[in-house]
């Protein structure tokens, strides 16, 4: 099994507790919450343009001053995604080894790491996490995590997308690694941004090519769950909670859609409170 | 205007010329080519698992030995995407400044840069390019590039997604920067992976909030084009060609869908031959 992806440390930004808590059988008010549509409106473009900058600065400052509550070191690797930030402290230039300074380059508006030796500006970009939502005989395949963070909690098979592969290929690969399951991707299902931690989740609907699966090295268990039995109180990540909830909503109306949304988490609560978020700018196709 | 995004140098992998060349009015055989559906099938998972590794290795070797045909230095920055690779030569650790070695870490299957000082494994991930397809009075807004690469060619407003923003926010920001246009995102339209260069294009349908636009600092012109007048022979990137073609196809059947696809480019031709690709694993929602 590949251990191909970094854990860069989960932050302790935490999330805000919301009144709607998912039980095994989601309630109607929760459904409304998930399916609100708020199209993006750039009513204040100046604010929008500076938002990424201030977010990145806040995240960077926070990460550098915080210990990692999950204990994952920066050199750890796993193919299982964590809802952590991809933002690292950049002290040196990867090309020439020169020391970096952190300032706003000429002609830009955002703080960047700049090499004091070769002048290179070092940019950082969000990371994509790719995974599969597999329905088999009206049940969904979930994996129980055997690694930190979220040890012992359930997730869809997913992991960081690698250079050289497509999102669909990455989702198939991760499913093989985490659940020893060979799948065929059927359609794109969800694109969920989590700006605060610099991650984008890309989830595909998929089907088992053979009805065989078993825990991979990072899973202690793999099980098929009926929609009414999904362990919403024991899921590993907000992104998986949102994905499963959207899927359940779609089954009620007859067919899966494609969903775009932004998962906004807020400071003040523990990262383990995966229900503490808002799903904003939810759009469907 | 922000100049927020890196050009890491366009490679000269080149692409294979295909018999289907787009003219101003796409031909029927081109349409068929674009709309073929090939669901992902992992008939050989072993091959799939090693694909990303071999691709990354091939790209890395190539990039390091090639000059940049567009002349963009590694320290250049622009908010306009280029179809270049995000894969860089990693000689030093960004955290401690130690020299790196390149080998397959224990428990992994892929070549990685590993710090010889602190032991950190340095991972690289694909980058997201986000942009808007804006229809206004049955015409599409395009920007003429005033910068290299693809100087003088037309593109949808788009650029690299930044840490701290969502894909939709990034697409709105880039449209403001490149076309001085305030837009509202309406729906997700396309997710196009280009594995060979480590990029994923995320394109939204959007509308002008006001009928005002003008060239930003990186554009020499902005124009609305009727669908029959889109300059298919003067587009900047394959991703934009595919996006516009899919949109035209959708208008023929009445409504826009959400499209997933993989743009596979092949060695042997010039990067300027944007028609030289295949669109594989095209899925719709």
Automatic annotation (TrEMBL), chains A, B:
Domain Nudix hydrolase: 125-248
Coiled-coil ranges per UniProt: none
PROSITE patterns according to UniProt: NUDIX, NUDIX_BOX
Superkingdom assignment: Eukaryota
Signal sequence region: none
Keywords: Hydrolase
InterPro entries with a match to the protein in the record: NUDIX_hydrolase-like_dom_sf, NUDIX_hydrolase_CS, NUDIX_hydrolase_dom, Nudix_N
GO-annotated molecular function: hydrolase activity
Protein name per Swiss-Prot or TrEMBL: Nudix hydrolase domain-containing protein
Taxonomic path: Eukaryota, Viridiplantae, Streptophyta, Embryophyta, Tracheophyta
